[in-house]
Each structure stands twice: as structure tokens, then as C-alpha cells.
Amino acid sequence: MAMTLAGRVSEELHFDTVTTGASDDFNKVTRMATAMVTQWGMSPKLRYLYYDSDKQNQLQKPFSEQTAREIDIEVQRIVDQAYKQCKDLLVEKKKEIGIIAEELLAKEVLGRDDMIRLLGKRPFDDPESFSQYFSGSRGDREGPGADLPLPQPQKEGDNPLAPPGSPAPTVFKGEQQ
Question: In sequence order, which residues have a C-beta less than 8 Å from that of residue 137 and are 6 or more positions away?
Fold first, then answer.
């Protein structure tokens, strides 16, 4: 959510006025925060309650006005927290953002090598950190593990995560597993 707000926060930090360009970002952030509160149980205040939404993403109202106010307060708190996190990070990294902005004005497109040249190596070792969590197979197929074959689909009924003796999943006609 903080990343989604970065464009607007950057405008606020670097320009005298802001544009309407971030309206879709606000929509996404608000929808996500609302789902966190009303559907995913991620509000310490409302906790384990689930409030369904209709097709227009309007909350059905099987709850009181007080609960509606609490939902609004929680959604605002989550969005404010993401905004603050984003702003703090952009202020902290202002120098680096300026370096990248200048280079983008000159080149229009930057690659990984450009980022390393401008900002230096990451503070962690890329290949080892990645492989520690993703078995050495990189999503972009670069670096260690790039020459390894991609995982192949499993045979029907072969599910290493299923408990022993559990039935094979149902495969419908025309569907591949």
C-alpha cells in the first residue's frame, strides 16, 4: 500500500501542486484497506468480523452506524499508516531518488546495471538471499539457477503437500492439473 501511494507522496514532496494522476492509486489503497478491515480480519479493533460487499463494492449494512464509523476509522488508520511509511521512506532516500530522477531524465529507461552503478550493490547478497527462500531458481531466469530446468507439472494424484492416503484431486474433463 505504501508503494502504491509513492507517486502522490512524491508529488507532494517535490512539487508545489499535485495532480489527479493518483486517483486510481487511492482507489486501490482504499479498497485494500477496506478488505483488510471488513473481510480479512486484519483490524485489531473489529478483528474477526466479515462484512460482505456487493457488486459495486458498497458494503451491505447488516451492522450499526457505530460499526460503520469504526470501519471508516480503521480504514483511515491503515491508509494513514501506509502514507506515513511511504513519506518517511521517500524523505529518508531523497538523495537516492534525486540521483535516479536525473538519470531517468537523461536515459528514460534504467536497467539493473544502471541501478547498481548509481546506488551501489544492494545491502544484501542477491543470489544467496533469493535462493535461500526460492531454492535458487530466479523468477527472471538470471543468475545462479538460471540454467536449471523449470519445474514440471506433477502427475495426477501426486501432491507432495497432501497428507498420506488422501484422495487424488478431482480433475474435470479438459482441465489440466
Answer: 131, 145, 148, 150, 151
Q: Quick check: is 31 in a domain?
A: yes
Please indicate, yes or no, if residue 69 is contained in any of the structural domains.
yes
Are 88 and 99 members of one domain? no
Tell me, yes or no, whether 115 and 88 share the same domain. no
pLDDT, tens only, 31-71: 999 999 988 888 888 777 777 665 565 555 677 788 889 99
Specify whether 57 is located in the same domain as 32.
yes
| Structural domain that includes position 26 | 6-92
Q: Is the pTM of this model over 0.70?
A: no
